[in-house]
Design goal:
Layout lengths: L1 E7 L5 E7 L9 E6 L2 E10 H10 L1 H4 L8 E4 L2 H28 L4 E7 L5 E7 L7 H11 L2 E6 L2 H8 L10 H4 L9 H6 L25 H8 L8 E4 L2 E9 L4 E6 L4 E5 H7 L8 H5 L13 H6 L6 H9 L5 H5 L23 E2 L9 E8 L5 E6 L5 H17 L16
Parallel strand pairs: 7-8
Antiparallel strand pairs: 1-2, 1-4, 3-4, 3-5, 6-7, 9-10, 10-11, 11-12, 13-14, 14-15
Helix pairs in contact: 3-4
C-alpha cells in the first residue's frame, strides 16, 4: 500500500512524500526521504487523512508536484547522530558566509544555512531589500566547502518562521507553530479594529511587519460595524440634531452629542427606534407583547415559544430608558383589534362585509347595498336604517345571495351582464 505523509525539515520547512508499506510511520518518526540531489533527513509531521487535508489547504501542498517523491526508510540511530552533527556545523557555515558578504560589500543578510543530510547540497537563506548579485559569493562558498551551494531569497515573515521564537503575547510564533500560510496584513486591519497606527511598533511583530493575528478578527469587526451609524454623522433624533461620537460594538451602544455639547450614550436598539428604523429585530415585538393589552391568549404556539427567549442586556437597558413601541403596532395597528359596531337589539345581524360604521354619528346602524340596479338602468345605492322591518332586511339579503349565484348584475332587459341603455 502507498500512504501520503508530510515530512518536516529544519526551519519548519515541510514537503509531501509517499510511503510504501502496510502501516505509515508514527508521528515525529525520523525518516530518510528522496530529494532532487540525493537523500535528506526529516521527521513525520502528518499522515493519513490529515496529510491529504493539509496538502489541499497549504501553500507548499498546492505547489507540490503531481508525482510525489518517496520516503525511502526509517532513519537508524547512526543516521540520526549524523543529522545532529550537521545541525551544529550549520552555524559555523552561516558565520563564514557573513564574512564573505562583508568582504564583497553585498547588501544582504544571511539568516540561516542548512546542510542536506548527505552533504551534497548547502542552502543559504538570506533577506535583502533589492536584487543582489551573489555569483561571486556562491563561487567562494563552493570552493570553501566543496559542495553545491544554493542561495534562497526569503521575506522577513519567512525568516521569522525559520528562526522561530516567542511573540509579544508570550506564545510561540503562529507562523512557526500552526499557521498554514503567510498572508500580507494591511494597515486597514488595524484601523478597523481602532488600533493606533501612530506607533507601528505596538502593532508589529518580531519580523518588523504587522502582526499576523490582526487578520483573525478583522472580519468580525467589519461585519459588526455595519450595524452602527458612521462616526461623525449628523442625525435627527427625538431631541433634535445630534452627532455620532463613537460606537461600542461589544456593548451595542452609541454615543451622541448635541450642538450644545451634551453627550449621551444609548443602546443601539433605542437609537434605531428614535430614527424610525423599520429594521428593528422582531424579537422586540415578541418580548414586549405585554404592552398590547392581553393578547397572549391569541398567540400561536410559535409566538408563545418566542416569548421564552432570553432578553439581551442591551434590550433591557433600552426598555428601562423609556416606553417601547412594538414593531407590529407601528406597522399595522388596525390588525390588532377589529372595529367594534354597536347595533340595536331588534335589528338582526348582517354579514361583516355588508356593514360599515356610521361616520355621521347617527343612531342605529347603516347597511349600504352597493351597486344595486335601479329602474332607469343605472346603479344606485339603497340605504337601510334601523327602522326597517325584519322582512325587508331578509329579502334584501336573499336577493344579494341570489344575484351572486347567478353570476352578477343584470341589465334593464333582464339579460346577465347587459350594459345600461342611454
Amino acid at each position: 500500500m502507498t500512504h501520503l505523509v508530510e515530512v518536516e525539515f529544519k526551519g519548519n520547512r515541510r514537503a509531501f512524500f509517499t510511503w510504501s508499506g502496510q502501516v505509515p510511520p508514527k508521528l515525529r518518526a525520523a525518516v530518510i526521504v528522496q530529494v532532487e540531489r540525493g537523500e535528506d533527513f526529516g521527521r513525520i509531521h502528518a499522515t493519513g487523512d490529515l496529510a491529504g487535508t493539509r496538502r489541499a489547504g497549504t501553500s507548499h501542498g498546492k505547489a507540490s508536484p503531481a508525482k510525489l517523491p518517496k520516503a525511502v526508510r526509517l532513519a537508524t540511530a547512526h543516521e540520526i547522530d549524523t543529522a545532529v552533527r550537521l545541525r551544529v556545523d550549520e552555524e559555523a557555515v552561516r558565520k563564514a558566509a557573513l564574512e564573505i558578504v562583508r568582504e564583497l560589500h553585498l547588501e544582504m543578510k544571511v539568516s540561516d544555512a542548512e546542510w542536506q543530510w548527505d552533504r551534497r547540497r548547502l542552502t543559504c537563506y538570506f533577506t535583502a531589500e533589492d536584487r543582489v548579485d551573489f555569483r561571486q559569493l556562491v563561487r567562494q562558498l563552493e570552493k570553501r566547502f566543496s559542495t553545491h551551494v544554493h542561495m534562497w531569497h526569503i521575506g522577513v515573515r519567512d525568516e521569522a518562521r525559520r528562526l522561530d521564537g516567542i511573540g509579544r503575547c508570550g506564545r510561540q510564533f503562529c507562523s512557526a507553530s500552526w499557521l498554514p500560510e503567510l498572508r500580507p496584513v494591511k494597515s486597514g486591519a488595524a484601523k478597523d479594529q481602532r488600533l493606533s497606527t501612530l506607533n507601528p511598533a505596538q502593532i508589529s511583530g518580531t519580523c518588523g511587519r504587522l502582526m499576523c493575528c490582526l487578520r483573525y478578527e478583522h472580519e468580525f469587526y467589519v461585519q459588526s460595524r455595519k450595524r452602527f451609524p458612521k462616526e461623525g454623522k449628523i442625525v435627527t433624533t427625538t431631541i433634535g440634531e445630534e452627532k455620532v461620537v463613537s460606537n461600542d460594538i461589544f456593548r451595542d451602544q452609541v454615543t451622541l452629542r448635541t450642538a450644545s455639547g451634551e453627550a449621551r450614550t444609548i443602546p443601539l436598539l433605542q437609537y434605531r427606534r428614535e430614527l424610525g428604523d423599520s429594521m428593528v429585530p422582531m424579537i422586540e415585538a415578541a418580548v414586549d407583547d405585554d404592552a398590547l393589552g392581553g393578547h397572549e391568549a391569541h398567540q400561536t404556539p410559535d409566538e408563545q415559544e418566542t416569548r421564552d427567549i432570553e432578553v439581551p442586556r442591551p434590550y433591557r437597558e433600552a426598555k428601562a430608558a423609556g416606553p417601547l413601541v412594538p414593531l407590529a403596532r407601528a406597522v399595522a395597528p388596525a390588525r390588532l383589534t377589529p372595529p367594534l359596531v354597536v347595533r340595536p337589539a331588534h335589528v338582526p345581524a348582517t354579514p361583516a362585509l355588508d356593514r360599515t360604521p356610521n361616520d355621521a354619528g347617527d343612531e342605529g346602524d347603516v347597511s349600504i347595498d352597493e351597486a344595486s340596479p335601479g329602474s332607469d338602468g343605472e346603479t344606485t345605492d339603497s340605504v337601510t336604517t334601523g327602522a326597517d322591518t325584519d322582512a325587508n332586511a331578509e329579502a334584501k339579503r336573499r336577493g344579494r345571495r341570489r344575484r351572486g349565484r347567478r353570476g352578477g348584475r343584470r341589465g334593464p332587459d333582464g339579460a346577465p351582464g347587459a350594459s345600461p341603455t342611454t
